Amino acid sequence: MLNNPLVRSFRQKSTSTQLSIIVLAALTLRLILVACIFRQTVDPTDHFDEFGWEMGWVARSIAQGHGFSSPFWPSTGPTALVPPIFPYFVATIFRIFGVYTAASAIAILSINSLFSALTCIPLYFSTRYAIGDRAATLAAWAWVFYPFAIYFSAARVWDYALTGLLFTTCFCLAQRLHRQRRVLAWLGFGVFYGIAGLSNPSVLSMFPVFLILTAVVLHRRKEKWLAHSLVATLGVLAVLTPWTVRNYRALHMLTPVRDNFWLECWAGNDGSTFESNDRWAHPASNPTEMQRFESLGEARYLAEKHTLAVTFIRQHPVVFLENSFRRALCFWTAYWSFSRAYLADQPTQIPDMFFSIGLTIFMLVGARKLWLRDKTAALPYVILMALFPFTYFFTHASPDYRQPIEPEIIALVSTGILSLKRFNRPALKANQQSDDEQPLILSTSA
């Protein structure tokens, strides 16, 4: 009865209407914020750093005809400090509306807001697939009002919203990848994932995980898991290789997407623990470091930071482990320090702590409930939460680094909320969920 074509058609139209309302509500909220605060983006203080910092400075260089270069205010030559997609997007806006103009700020933040609003769609379908209709609806509406999603899309010029949309779509596609038997579908998944990697390479860590989870299913079914996995991998490599070649030619160093790891590692392991990310370790904040960057050039400067970071970690392994634990705690709770100086510098830490701790608790409750009910559906979420932040534990942690996986966090939080006694039902999945929405990532059945 529930698979009757008329019933399915009605459900599809109902879902489409509901998602349209959700996306429109999310976009409206974000555009209101854009209208209220876009002027702070065009503040010329500190060389227009609110226009995206390194992203914005590279975009300025592109828009002015100097190519993908100069990640800081001075002209310093070719760079690979940032991934390419967002700077080229900002440069396009600059060419249309002008470099560092109010019109450009409105356009960039508005499109960011659209990216964030559209994330409701893959978030809804991935959550419905793994958990059920009620959790999907709650997650999509939660994303509409989620403060971090609103702020990091409507108030910050960076790749957060774009990467969130791309990766959430990849996550949604990966859940269904085992159903795809056409080679072109696997190639398309790899190409799309490669595009997400060019937006922010942090998401690439999950690509082999998705392939392994899917390969297990196909191997159990005695289907072509190896050939399909290779095709998807070729798709990713086809997207990433041209930019890797460009970086090698420009900087004479092999770096697939960006080369900033050792600078960030040094910023988190230079002996200063006042904040997780020592701002004075960065050329953008420290004139001495900027002079060093200019004199050495990007490749030699980063090699120097590589040596300094490794030396510090080897000489202070206990301090490194302690700070890594603090960074892990900060990633999930927003807590770094209760010192007066730090609280004066970061006055929002305490309210952020209460909010983040609450989210983490509900996320863990949701993950546990989902794991007990359906390990197959829970496994991608659990691995994502364990694997994705790992690099940041050894470098530095802040709320913006969570943005690519925030939609999946919200999905688990919604599951945790629905598992409370007052909301609880015999099963987390809605009874109306159709057969083609059942998660079979590790299932042995067809």
UniProtKB/TrEMBL annotation:
Signal peptide: none annotated. Residues 83-240 form the Glycosyltransferase RgtA/B/C/D-like domain. It is found in: Cell membrane. GO terms for cellular component: plasma membrane. Keywords: Cell membrane, Glycosyltransferase, Membrane, Transferase, Transmembrane, Transmembrane helix. Its main location: membrane. Its EC number is 2.4.-.-. It is a multi-pass membrane protein. This is Glycosyltransferase family 39 protein. It comes from Edaphobacter paludis.
